[in-house]
Amino acid sequence: MSHQPHAQLIAIKRWADRGLCDVVSRNIERINAEDASIMMRILDHIHVVDRIFQHHLQGMPHTYRAARSERMPELEALVQSIQKVDDWYASYVDALGERDLEQAVDFVFTSGKPARMRRSEIILHVCLHGTYHRGNAGALLQLRGIDPSRDSITDFLEYAA
Q1: Partner of 120 at 20 to 30 A CA spacing, among 77, 89, 91, 102?
Q2: Considering the entire predicted model, what is its pTM?
Q3: Are 103 and 119 in contact (CB under 8 A)?
Q4: Is the CATH number of domain 4-156 2.160.20.10?
Q5: Which Pfam families match (predicted)?
Q6: Is 55 annotated as a binding residue?
Q7: pLDDT, tens digit, 9 for 90 and up, residues 48-72
Q8: Annotated binding residue 6
């Protein structure tokens, strides 16, 4: 399959998101309120961007006016929604063909600026965006003496072996 790298990237994203959500869920009470708020904003931001681009890939409008929720969800609900959307991406990528990956998608950024990206670029963006912000979350956890989840490609390959 020529889209195998995209499917693997999404599989790694899903695994890494679940690892982070698990660590945060088990340790949220160990960090102070300010750090917990920052952690929730990080998780929410990753998720909202995933949702926005999910809508773009589906050719559907979304209601987000920014790359964050207007009202912060509870941690448990956010974790469940993250898992649901990650599962959607995995199924979506598995169903794509080579031509589908190269198909352009027209959409509008939350800033109002029109944009066009190929489906493959959107998938890459979602994966890289999540990686960047999981790194932010991991640094915050480490500063508070909490081991973050493993989330590198080599960690995933070791886990999957």
Answers
A1: 77
A2: 0.94
A3: yes
A4: no
A5: DinB
A6: no
A7: 999 999 999 999 999 999 999 999 9
A8: no
